[in-house]
Task: inverse folding
């Protein structure tokens, strides 16, 4: 590239002589020892380089030959404005470079092996996570919508900033403690309004959100972890408007009964929602009742509400819904307070249900009575494949009852009864049965595969 | 505080681990196998591919066991590992649930405690307030001070209680903070432990996978070796067999070679003899052929010379031909030009002639129109001429009649006055008639009419054989009498019918088709008409002539039936009348149907000549040309001969006599007049004399007449 112009003038002559007389070629080499035909850039290459250099002003890509296109894509700068590149470049190589340059650590497998999707999802997440209400212009988010609308399938929002009166809020700003304390009392504690965004993302399938601030360190305030009613309202409406949503996850956001009910009310009859995850919240019995209502008015396949405050009545409501449900495949009620009342209700429901495959009731203060009903379930139900009863005080008797039930079962592939104070014998027996079932299932699967 | 749970743990937990173990395991095993296979493929040449595949297939049964075992082992290892890892989580779960229960319990206790405290403090407060009212009543300052101090003490106690509670709560808070920190630490440791275990697991699993892989590979290798050795022994065995076979073949071959050599020797000697013989024979042949060759060469020389000569000649000719060809070509081109010109001319000519033709046709049509016009005019003039002629005729006749009358009158006068004879008026028949003489013959009926009449007659006679047709018959007879009188209408009719049947070939087939829907009589009428037109018979006369001819022909033909036919033919009127009464006629003997054609031909031959003659002096079809004027002269002659010759002689004699008498009379009258004039002159002279005698006037005149006569001319 950095050849002297004199050398650039030779090639046509040299090319002619190359065929005629090799000595003349050697003479040229003698004049310029570094010269070689391969060093001279082709005109097409020069043109392509020019295109690369002026891509921002004049993006020419689709008109090029595939070979040239690759050449240009390899050399395009990752810092080109997105307005130019977003809808023009579909080559993953370019986006890979963009991602690598921006984040360094990238795992493309969790983005469907699409670098472009990864770039836009992470870009949008970044924008939203750094969005400060009343301080940031909503246009920064909305401006991205037309660019990334076609590529964003999942949004994983790991923090949401509350509005702040100070011009800037950062973790190392120690003085803001008291000031922000005062500010928190103000009426406007709402976070980013998803209503302006979700209905525009036509390909969004997964939505994860946490109403909290990451890494606040010593600036911790309760107010930073607030999920206001208005937030809830706007989020619920936004979710309702997003018709393509399949997975919804709201973690650690202080979702209490009222908010849960509001969310559920807006999610009723959602056309595509398959997975709902409301773990690490404050959902009580009323919220659980709402969720039970949702179970039979949606296409939910997976419901996860662990580490909440659901007690007996709530579990009964869910069990009532479960008994009539025919779509739910997985239910996780870990670390709740179901007690025997709720556990029995769920187990009774399982006697009627024929779709649920995966159930987690760990850490629910259940005891022997539940175990007896569950043993009945083990005998009668042959769709349930996995059950987790860990951290429940089932006791020796409960273990024996379960062992009996397990002896008549052939579908259970997994049964977790750790820390349930069952006897070692029953534990062993149960694990034996489970292993047998596993082998059978494995064999069956293998033969099926061979046939296929 | 409660939501400080470890999110990483949760995410770990979120994906079902055990359920997915089996497929993962299977996928891993399959991947392994595929990798091994592809590696083997890479290492080995492409040619060994099929062999390798087969081997693998064969091995699969043996090695499957190993694979399954490894799979099982790995599943076990994996589940154990996951259990090991999840143990931490479960422990954390149980701790968490324990903590929750503890917290709940503590919360409950705290609430209880607070409530108790609130109750007790409320009591105390009420006591204080009560005491305030008591204190108000007190008026002694000492008491008041006491009560105030007691109040103060009480308040202090209350505050102390509260402070204690606050302190307790703060301590509790601190404790829970500590616990929180401890929990955090514990969880961090847990997480670390988990990570450690996971890493260990990963390492361990990787190692074990590798081991298993090695084992599987070893087993495969082993199997492969066994197979290889087996195949090699097989291979060697086959090789040995082959070698033996080859040896045997070689021996056989050598034996056969010897045999063939002997045979060859034999053949060779035989062939040598044969060869010698053939050589001698061929030598002679060669000599003969050489001689022939010489001869042929000579002839060849000759021929060559001849051919050369011919060639030269032909060359010359060719040249000439080329010249003539070129000439011809030129000629052809010239002629082509001429042809082209002629064609153009011809085209022009054609065009011209077409135009001319067009003009001429136009002229022709015009002239035709003129001609027709002329004809019309001519007809018109002819009519006018005829009329004029009549008028002239009438006028002349009138005049002539007047003259005749006058002549007769004068004759009568001459007779009565001069001669004194009695005059008789001669018979003058022609005087009565007036107008031009009409031709006596009436228009002849055409043949068609005649036939139709005849047929009509036949019909009517067929229908009503009574009196009804007698009148017609009579009339017919009247007309027939003019022609021949020998042939009766009935006969003619029969004859015609016969003719209609026999001479059908003269009718056009198209006409027959057209006629088919008509009635029978109509049909026969039309048929006869066409036959007659074909034969050239036009008038009724011809028809009767034909009938007559037929009769005669039959007379001449049939000798044996002569009498009967003569009776038929000659005495037709009577016979017919007789027949009409009987109404049925056996016409079999009229003429034999077979003879009709012959007769017809004879008739046409006989008849045609007069026809031609007749047609020659019958050119005008106008119909008014042929007026015969032969009688006119006679007529007019008769007119002129009113006064007969004798009388004219008389008239001549009388004239001469009268002439003489006239002369005498004129002389006499002349004399009379002479005398009279002489008498008058005499008288006049007498008078003059008298006058002169008497008149003296002259003398008296002053101016003499001579003078006047002289002056007047000036």
Result:
């Amino acid at each position: 590239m950095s050849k002297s112009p004199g050398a650039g003038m030779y090639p046509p002559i040299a090319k002619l002589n190359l065929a005629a007389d090799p000595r003349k070629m050697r003479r040229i080499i003698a004049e310029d020892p570094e010269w070689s035909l391969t060093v001279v850039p082709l005109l097409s290459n020069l043109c392509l380089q020019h295109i690369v250099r002026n891509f921002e002003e004049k993006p020419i890509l689709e008109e090029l030959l595939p070979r040239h296109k690759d050449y240009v894509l390899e050399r395009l700068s990752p810092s080109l404005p997105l307005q130019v590149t977003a809808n023009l470049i579909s080559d993953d190589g370019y986006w890979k470079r963009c991602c690598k340059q921006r984040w360094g650590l990238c795992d493309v497998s969790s983005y469907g092996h699409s670098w472009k999707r990864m770039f836009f999802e992470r870009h949008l997440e970044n924008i939203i996570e750094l969005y400060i209400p009343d301080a940031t212009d909503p246009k920064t988010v909305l401006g991205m919508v037309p660019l990334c609308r076609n590529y964003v399938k999942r949004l994983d929002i790991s923090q949401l900033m509350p509005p702040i009166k100070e011009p800037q809020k950062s973790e190392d700003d120690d003085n803001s403690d008291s000031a922000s304390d005062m500010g928190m009392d103000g009426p406007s504690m709402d976070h980013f309004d998803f209503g302006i965004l979700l209905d525009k993302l036509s390909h969004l399938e997964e939505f994860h959100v946490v109403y909290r601030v990451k890494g606040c360190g010593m600036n911790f305030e309760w107010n930073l972890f607030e999920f206001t009613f208005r937030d809830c309202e706007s989020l619920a409406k936004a979710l309702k408007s997003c018709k393509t949503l399949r997975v919804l996850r709201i973690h650690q956001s202080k979702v209490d009964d009222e908010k849960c009910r509001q969310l559920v009310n807006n999610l009723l009859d959602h056309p595509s929602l398959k997975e709902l995850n409301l773990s690490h919240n404050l959902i009580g019995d009323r919220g659980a009742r709402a969720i039970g209502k949702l179970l039979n008015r949606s296409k939910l396949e997976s419901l996860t509400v662990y580490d909440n405050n659901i007690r007996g009545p709530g579990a009964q409501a869910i069990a009532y819904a479960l008994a009539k449900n025919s779509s739910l495949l997985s239910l996780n009620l870990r670390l709740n307070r179901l007690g025997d009342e709720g556990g029995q209700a769920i187990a009774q429901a399982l006697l009627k249900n024929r779709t649920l495959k995966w159930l987690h009731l760990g850490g629910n203060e259940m005891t022997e009575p539940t175990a007896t009903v569950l043993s009945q379930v083990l005998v009668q139900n042959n769709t349930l494949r996995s059950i987790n009863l860990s951290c429940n005080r089932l006791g020796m008797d409960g273990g024996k009852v379960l062992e009996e039930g397990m002896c008549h079962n052939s579908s259970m592939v997994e049964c977790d009864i750790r820390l349930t104070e069952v006897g070692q014998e029953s534990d062993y027996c149960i694990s034996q049965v489970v292993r047998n079932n596993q082998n059978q299932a494995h064999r069956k699967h293998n033969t099926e595969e061979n046939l296929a | 505080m409660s939501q400080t749970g470890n999110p990483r743990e949760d995410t770990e937990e979120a994906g079902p681990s055990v359920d997915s173990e089996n497929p993962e395991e299977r996928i891993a095993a399959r991947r392994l196998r595929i990798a091994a296979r592809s590696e083997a493929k890479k290492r080995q040449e492409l040619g060994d591919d099929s062999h390798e595949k087969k081997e693998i297939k064969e091995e699969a049964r043996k090695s499957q066991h190993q694979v399954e075992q490894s799979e099982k082992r790995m599943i076990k290892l994996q589940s154990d590992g996951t259990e090991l890892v999840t143990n931490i989580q479960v422990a954390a779960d149980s701790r968490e649930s324990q903590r929750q229960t503890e917290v709940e319990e503590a919360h409950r206790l705290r609430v209880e405690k607070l409530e108790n405290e609130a109750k007790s403090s409320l009591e105390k407060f009420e006591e204080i307030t009560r005491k305030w009212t008591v204190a108000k009543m007190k008026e002694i300052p000492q008491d008041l001070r006491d009560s105030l101090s007691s109040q103060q003490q009480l308040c202090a106690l209350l505050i102390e209680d509260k402070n204690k509670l606050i302190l307790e709560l703060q301590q509790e808070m601190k404790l829970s903070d500590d616990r929180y920190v401890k929990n955090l630490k514990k969880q961090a440791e847990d997480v670390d432990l988990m990570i450690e275990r996971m890493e260990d697991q990963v390492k361990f699993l990787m190692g074990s996978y590798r081991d298993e892989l090695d084992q599987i590979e070893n087993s495969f290798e082993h199997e492969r070796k066994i197979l290889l050795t087996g195949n090699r022994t097989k291979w060697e065995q086959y090789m040995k067999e082959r070698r033996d076979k080859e040896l045997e073949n070689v021996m056989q071959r050598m034996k056969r070679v010897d045999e063939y050599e002997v045979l060859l020797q034999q053949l060779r000697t035989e062939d040598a003899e044969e060869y010698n013989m053939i050589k001698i024979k061929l030598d002679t042949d060669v000599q003969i052929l050489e001689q022939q060759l010489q001869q042929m060469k000579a002839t060849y020389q000759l021929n060559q010379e001849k051919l050369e000569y011919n060639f030269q000649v032909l060359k010359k000719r060719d040249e000439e031909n080329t010249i003539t060809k070129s000439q011809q070509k030129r000629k052809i081109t010239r002629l082509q030009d001429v042809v082209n010109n002629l064609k153009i001319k011809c085209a022009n000519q054609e065009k011209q002639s077409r135009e001319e033709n067009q003009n001429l046709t136009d002229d022709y049509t015009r002239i035709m129109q003129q001609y027709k016009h002329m004809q019309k005019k001519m007809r018109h003039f002819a009519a006018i001429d005829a009329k004029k002629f009549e008028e002239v005729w009438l006028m002349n006749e009138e005049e002539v009649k007047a003259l005749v009358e006058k002549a007769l009158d004068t004759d009568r006068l001459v007779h009565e006055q001069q001669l004194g004879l009695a005059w008789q008026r001669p018979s003058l028949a022609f005087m009565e008639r007036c107008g031009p003489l009409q031709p006596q013959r009436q228009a002849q009926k055409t043949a068609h009419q005649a036939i139709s009449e005849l047929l009509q007659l036949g019909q009517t006679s067929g229908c009503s054989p009574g009196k009804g047709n007698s009148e017609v018959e009579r009339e017919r007879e009247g007309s027939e009498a003019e022609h021949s009188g020998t042939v009766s209408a009935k006969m003619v009719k029969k004859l015609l019918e016969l003719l209609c049947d026999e001479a059908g070939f003269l009718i056009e087939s198209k006409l027959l088709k057209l006629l088919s829907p008509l009635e029978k009589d109509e049909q026969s009428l039309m048929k006869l008409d066409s036959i007659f037109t074909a034969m050239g018979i036009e008038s009724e006369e011809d028809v009767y002539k034909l009938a007559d001819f037929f009769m005669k022909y039959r007379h001449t033909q049939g000798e044996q039936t002569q009498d009967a036919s003569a009776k038929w033919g000659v005495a037709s009127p009577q016979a017919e009348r007789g027949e009409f009464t009987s109404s049925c006629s056996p016409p079999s003997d009229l003429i034999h149907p077979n003879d009709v054609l012959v007769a017809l031909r004879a008739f046409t031959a006989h008849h045609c000549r007069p026809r031609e003659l007749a047609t020659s002096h019958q050119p005008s079809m106008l119909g008014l040309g042929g007026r015969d004027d032969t009688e006119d002269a006679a007529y007019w002659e008769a007119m002129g001969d009113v006064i007969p010759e004798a009388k004219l002689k008389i008239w001549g004699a009388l004239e001469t006599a009268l002439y003489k008498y006239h002369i005498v009379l004129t002389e006499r009258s002349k004399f009379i007049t002479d005398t009279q004039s002489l008498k008058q002159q005499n008288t006049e002279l007498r008078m003059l004399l008298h006058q002169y005698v008497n008149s003296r006037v002259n003398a008296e005149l002053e101016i003499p007449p001579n003078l006047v006569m002289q002056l007047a001319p000036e």
Remarks:
- Residues 141-419 of chain B form the longest helix (279 residues).
- The mean pLDDT of chain B is 77.
- The two ends of chain B are 197 Å apart (CA to CA).
